[in-house]
Each structure stands twice: as structure tokens, then as C-alpha cells.
């Protein structure tokens, strides 16, 4: 088997094109420009790259894009004050505080201070609860991206067996909810799960989100299965060069699976695209606009606005 690569970079570009046209529609019909505020504490190189990418792509689709770069020793009170300002600012629809935060800051106090209506990360307990209850919610971007990527190669998810390795609040737990809602039988696994290779071999789809380079080997996979690699691990190769690899042993897995996402160029670009989609969704919900699905543009993955026409209520 020579697995087909699922090209997340190209799909993200297509998604951003549709988001940009949704933004034009919002501007022309409703005089609304979605606004995204991204907050970063400190200068961690990886986080700085992520934040810059998010802000640049937000600008490129036509958002009002703002970046707040604060020193790593900023006090929690000052950060909470900024969040209060952004909550009250009507031109801002989405607020993202880049994680991880410095040790002296209580992450939950910060995440819970964000207005749930502007919580484009989907991390606020209000949105976590709404998602779990099957109510419309802002859902975390990486799980939305994973479901979108899977749906492009397996249109009907009903009845499929999925193993999700990793139970983080950002990926594993919300992904299990979304896949369950889509009709999958989901096993939430982790590194210490007994017989993990056997469990994976029985699954139609394996999603690796454990943060462990090369964890999933080729012989862990069902022949013809689908593998989605959420891992982003920096490793030093045999020539002493640093490179990014996923949680899946790519070459081995490609010999066994039918579809595989690469790292980089798979889930990562789609995650940023879903941040933009969530911001448009938040802009629409906050203003009480209604959405009309058109038959030629089916809903690919909630809660994306993609493929919808906008109407003012009433
Ligand atoms: N750090 C790593 N992934 C994420 C994410 O999806 N959102 C935020 N806010 N921080 C992150």
C-alpha cells in the first residue's frame, strides 16, 4: 500500500479562500468586519511563529487583526485587564491567548475570563460543556481540522472505529466528542493504554495526538486504514539537523495505510484556518445573524461558516 497524502496545506488555502468570501459577504451585507485579537506572553520561538502566522492569515482574509505581545513576567492582573478590555471591545469577535502561559499565571483563570462568545479556541468551560451536550458551540480548532480532513477521504463516518491517542483538553477530549457525534465508535487512548498497538490495528482510523515522536509504527495499523498525525515534535536527525516530525513513523505508516496526513503540512495549516472560521462564526453569532446552508455548498464540519450564506435576522 502506498498511502495517499492528505494535503492539509492545500485544503487550508481553499478554506481561507471561502472564509475571505464570507468576510466580503459580511462586510457588504451586514457592514461587519470580523476582529481577532491574539495575545502572546514572552518570546518562546515556536509560540511566536504560531502567533505571527495566525495574525498574518487573519489580515489576509480581511479581518481586523490585532496582536498583543506582552513580556513573560507580566502580572496576571494586567493580562486579565487586557482580556476585560477585549471582551468589551465590539470590534473584536475572537480572543486567543496563546498557550502555554508562564508558570506564575493561572491558565484557567485566564481562559475563564474570556467572554465565551469570543472564545475562538473553544477552551472556555461554557463552550466545552455546550460541545459535550451537543449544543451549538465554539469548538477547539485542531479537532475541527481533524474531522474536516477525515471527511475529505471518508465521507460517511457512521459506524467507523477510531482510536484517538492523547486525551488533552485541546485535542483528544473534544475530538472524541466530535467523532462520536459523527457516528464513530471512539476509543480514547493514551500512552499507558494497555495493548495500544493491538487496539490501533483494529481501528479504521487512528489519530495520534500524544506528543511522542514516531510513536505509531507501521505494524500498528490496519491495512488500508486512515492515519491522522496531530503531533509536532522537534527532533535532531542523524546529520545533527533539527526537524519537525509527527507522532507517526511516516514511511512505515505510508506502506500500510490508505490515507495519511504529513507533518508538517497536514493538520497544522487546517488548525489555523479553523481559527479564522471560528472567528467568522463568533462574529455572526454575537450579532444574531442567521445562516442559510446552500445545497451546492454542504456543511463540511461544524461550527464552520464555510459554505453558508449570510442574512441579517428579520
Ligand atoms: N498552544 C498550542 N496550541 C494552541 C491552541 O490551539 N490555542 C492556543 N491558544 N494555544 C495553543
Structural notes for this entry:
- By secondary structure, this protein is an alpha/beta fold.
- Among the domains are: 88 residues, Rossmann fold; 128 residues, Rossmann fold, CATH 3.40.50.
- Helices cover 39% and strands 18% of the residues.
- The strands form four sheets. It has a six-stranded parallel beta sheet, sandwiched between helices.
- It is globular and about 50 Å long.
- About 5% of the residues have low confidence.
- The protein binds guanine.
- The site of guanine has 8 residues, from strand 4 and helix 6.
Show the helix and strand layout.
Layout: E1 4-5, H1 8-30, E2 35-41, H2 45-60, E3 64-70, H3 76-88, E4 94-97, H4 107-113, H5 125-132, H6 141-153, E5 161-165, H7 172-181, E6 185-189, H8 196-201, E7 205-208, E8 226-229, E9 233-236, E10 242-245, H9 250-256, E11 259-260, H10 267-286, E12 290-293, E13 308-311
Helix pairs in contact: 1-10, 2-10, 6-7, 6-10
The structure holds guanine.
Amino acid at each position: 500500500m502506498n498511502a495517499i497524502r492528505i494535503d492539509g496545506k492545500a485544503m487550508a488555502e481553499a478554506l481561507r479562500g471561502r472564509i475571505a468570501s464570507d468576510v466580503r459577504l459580511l462586510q457588504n451585507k451586514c457592514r461587519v468586519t470580523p476582529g481577532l485579537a491574539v495575545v502572546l506572553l514572552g518570546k518562546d520561538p515556536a509560540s511566536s511563529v504560531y502567533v505571527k502566522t495566525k495574525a498574518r492569515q487573519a489580515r489576509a482574509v480581511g479581518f481586523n487583526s490585532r496582536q498583543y505581545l506582552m513580556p513573560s513576567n507580566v502580572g496576571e492582573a494586567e493580562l486579565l485587564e487586557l482580556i476585560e478590555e477585549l471582551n468589551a471591545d465590539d470590534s473584536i469577535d475572537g480572543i486567543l491567548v496563546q498557550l502555554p502561559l508562564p508558570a506564575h499565571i493561572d491558565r484557567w483563570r485566564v481562559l475563564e475570563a474570556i467572554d465565551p462568545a469570543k472564545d475562538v479556541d473553544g477552551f472556555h468551560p461554557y463552550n466545552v460543556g455546550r460541545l459535550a451536550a451537543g449544543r451549538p458551540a465554539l469548538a477547539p480548532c485542531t479537532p475541527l481540522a481533524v474531522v474536516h480532513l477525515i471527511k475529505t477521504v471518508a465521507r460517511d463516518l457512521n459506524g467507523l472505529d477510531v482510536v484517538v491517542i492523547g486525551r488533552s483538553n485541546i485535542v483528544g477530549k473534544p475530538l472524541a466528542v466530535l467523532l462520536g457525534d459523527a457516528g464513530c465508535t471512539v476509543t480514547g487512548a493514551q500512552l499507558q493504554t494497555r495493548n495500544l498497538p493491538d487496539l490501533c490495528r483494529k481501528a479504521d482510523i487512528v489519530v495520534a495526538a500524544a506528543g511522542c515522536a514516531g510513536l505509531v509504527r507501521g505494524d500498528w495499523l490496519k491495512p488500508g486504514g486512515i492515519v491522522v498525525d496531530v503531533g509536532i515534535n522537534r527532533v535532531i536527525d542523524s546529520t545533527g539537523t533539527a526537524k519537525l516530525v509527527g507522532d507517526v513513523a511516516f514511511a512505515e505508516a505510508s506502506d500500510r495505510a490508505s490515507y495519511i496526513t504529513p507533518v508538517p503540512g497536514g493538520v497544522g495549516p487546517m488548525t489555523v484556518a479553523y481559527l479564522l472560521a471560528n472567528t467568522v462564526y463568533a462574529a455572526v453569532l454575537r450579532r444574531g445573524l442567521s445562516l442559510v446552508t446552500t445545497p451546492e455548498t454542504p456543511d463540511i464540519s461544524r461550527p464552520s461558516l464555510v459554505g453558508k450564506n449570510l442574512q441579517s435576522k428579520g
